[in-house]
């Protein structure tokens, strides 16, 4: 058997705020939605391919202290795309970890930006090359593991 991720579904507390956030940071387009009371959702994609589904069926904030999702990571082709995502995160006033683009580890060229969505879900946008000009924020451990 072979497996490939189809799409990721996230519970959100405010569908409109989350849809706006993911559209601005990632450039996703809404490919389907429902605004029916009690059944609000948005399907987000790129070039007609479904990537992320948002389901308005939760309250409060995401807790990294509980078992479950650690973070959601998106690979982009180059560090310039990572920097555009970082600019959007800063413009939106979202929580940004490590104060910007950092490598995945000591001596690594790959790296990205680590931040949170409106519900506190931890996210990463990274490129396979171009982030090695800064020190790794967590010596001796993967950056994406501890933020």
Automatic annotation (TrEMBL):
Source organism's superkingdom? Bacteria
Alphabetically list the UniProt keywords.
Answer: Metal-binding
* Keyword Ribonucleoprotein annotated: no
Task: Check the record and name the InterPro entries matching this protein.
Answer: Fosfomycin_Res_Enzymes, Glyas_Bleomycin-R_OHBP_Dase, Glyas_Fos-R_dOase_dom, Glyoxalase_1_CS, VOC_core
Residue ranges of domain VOC in the record: 4-128
Name this protein carries in UniProt:
VOC family protein
